[in-house]
Amino acid sequence: MTQSGDRGAPNWANVSPETAQVKEMTPDAYFAYAAELLKVNGPHLIDKPQLARMIRLGIEAGQSFDATKVNPAIRQALQTAPAAAQKALIAEWRKVGRSANGWVMNTDSGVYGASYLKRGAVAMFEIGMNLPEDSIYPDTGTSPLDGRNKYVIFVGRRSLREPFREPRLCPLFEQSGRFKSGSLEFHVG
């Protein structure tokens, strides 16, 4: 998923196959798939309180989800959940990075704890992120970076947590979320 213009306006014309797959699912299929994933990818301890609340929706770790067994009022709410969730994730996306000197940098992703909106927004727009110690994700906040251009970011020595002597590269991605040729080069000055 990518933005066009304002950071919160997604460009649905160029979505990754994963994002398109989720967008095309019915709510019943989505929650059934999520329940099946919980069977093979056990929840983290931090997710236990959220999972306890999800039981009221008919979603329980280790169990299949059967929409026909869910209370009709809850099932109706689950049917409207995708549109409400999309609005919430778009609103959260605007808060994911911090702006400085014309760049938007996301310096605290990769580990989300119980920040489910942030986790979901990153999954919706970026298909995941590495830890900030491993990667950063610069963005202009207004237009996608283009691999045909050369970008150089200078970082002051005092702003680094640990010194490095060689330039570091930052990969660029296609709008589909796939790697793009070209990169950003970081220099310490």
Molecular structure report:
The chain has helices at 17-24, 27-40, 48-54, 72-96, 116-126; strands at residues 2-4, 6-11, 98-100, 103-105, 151-155, 168-173, 179-188. It is of the alpha+beta class. It has a domain at 2-99 and 110-130. The strands form 3 sheets. Strands 5-7-6 form a 3-stranded mixed beta sheet, with no helix packed on it. Helix 4 crosses helix 5. The two termini are 33 Å apart.
SSE diagram, text form:
Blueprint: E1 2-4, E2 6-11, H1 17-24, H2 27-40, H3 48-54, H4 72-96, E3 98-100, E4 103-105, H5 116-126, E5 151-155, E6 168-173, E7 179-188
Parallel strand pairs: 5-7
Antiparallel strand pairs: 1-2, 3-4, 6-7
Helix pairs in contact: 4-5
Give a short overview.
The chain is α+β, with helices and mostly antiparallel strands and 189 residues long. It has a domain at 2-99 and 110-130. 34% of the residues lie in helices and 19% in strands.
Low-confidence stretches: 1-14
Percentage of β-strand residues? 15-25%
* Distance from first to last alpha carbon: 33 Å
SS-derived structural category:
alpha+beta
| Helix fraction bin | 25-40%
Task: Note the overall shape.
Answer: elongated
Question: N-to-C SSE series?
Answer: EEHHHHEEHEEE
Mean pLDDT value: 75
Number of strands: 7
Count of separate DSSP helical elements = 5
Strand arrangement in the largest pleated sheet: 5-7-6
Largest sheet: 3 strands, mixed
Rg calculated over all Cα atoms: 19 Å
